[in-house]
Amino acid sequence: MTNDDAENQPAQLALAVQLPDDETFGSFYPGDNAQLITALKNAAIGQGDELLYIWGQQGSGRSHLLHAACAELDGEGETAAYISLDTHHNMSPRILDGMEQLALVCLDNLDAIAGIEPWERAVFNFFNRRREKVMGSLVISAVNAPRNLGLSLPDLASRLDWGVAYQLKPLDDEGKLSALQLRSELRGFKLPTDVGRFLLNRLSRDMSTLLAALDLLDNASFQAKRKLSIPFAKEILGF
Questions:
Q1: Euclidean distance between the first and the last CA atom of the chain, given in angstroms as a whole number
Q2: Chain Cα centroid distance, residue 183
Q3: Helix 193-202 and helix 207-224: axis angle, to 10°?
């Protein structure tokens, strides 16, 4: 096998991305996104749409759901690939070569390569190769609908319109509180409602920030052997 052949083999690619073990469908609070989650679960087991396009604001949980889809497929003994395109500067567009053979491919943060011709062309060519294979599902996420990404390759935007698109609806404050309490239960501790509301009132409301604070408080309370309370949260978070 030549070096070029090896680079084109999916097994040789960086497919074994270490997915977060706590980002599954079970740890995602659905809010008003039940239909989207059902579509992703179907895609993960090969019974869904050929192309799913998910768009939503930063911190809305797009990456979580793509990680969950890959984890679901992995449990079925199939092979999935997850690539976050916001790290494209650390990769070659050739990473997509051969991935049309995989049962599930998730391309996260497509907006990160908008206007970068080599990457747009690589995604476009990969999309065409995958359609010829007629197998599995391709899941793509970005911050906006395809026509609003600023893509320089019109044919790529056109191809993306062929899929089924879902807007990931953000959680309201009550939904975010429920999501935090769900995550705390899965981690084996209880988040009191008053502490949860305190976090929502004092921190940025994006879920990444809130979950990072929850992890910090969990670790601190375990080490200090103290229950979560507002005074303890103020102490740990520096308020």
A1: 60
A2: 16
A3: 130
**Amino acid occupying residue 202:** R
Using the predicted structure, report yes or no on whether residue 6 has a pLDDT greater than 60. no
* CA gap 197, 34 in Å, rounded: 24
Q: Which phi and psi angles does 55 have, rounded to 5°?
A: -130, 145
Side-chain half-sphere CA neighbours of 64 within 13 A: 22
> Which DSSP symbol is given to 104?
E
Each residue's pLDDT tens digit, 49-74: 889 999 998 888 999 999 999 988 87
Question: Which pair of structure tokens corresponds to residue 42?
Answer: 């179907």
The H or E element that residue 230 is part of is helix 230-237
Classified as helix, coil or strand, 211 is helix
Q: Mean pLDDT, the chain, as a whole number?
A: 87
Q: What is the DSSP letter of 145?
A: -
Say how far apart CA 175 and CA 217 lie, in whole Å.
20
Token pair listed for 233: 């949260």
For residue 113, pLDDT over 60 is answered with yes
Phi and psi at residue 10, to the nearest 5°: -55, -35
Q: E-strand spans in 56-103?
A: 80-84
pLDDT tens by residue, 186-220: 988 999 999 999 999 999 888 889 999 999 999 99
Number of other CB atoms surrounding residue 120 within 10 Å: 21
* Tokens read off for 88: 């494209």
Cα radius of gyration (the chain): 20
What's the residue count for the chain?
Answer: 239
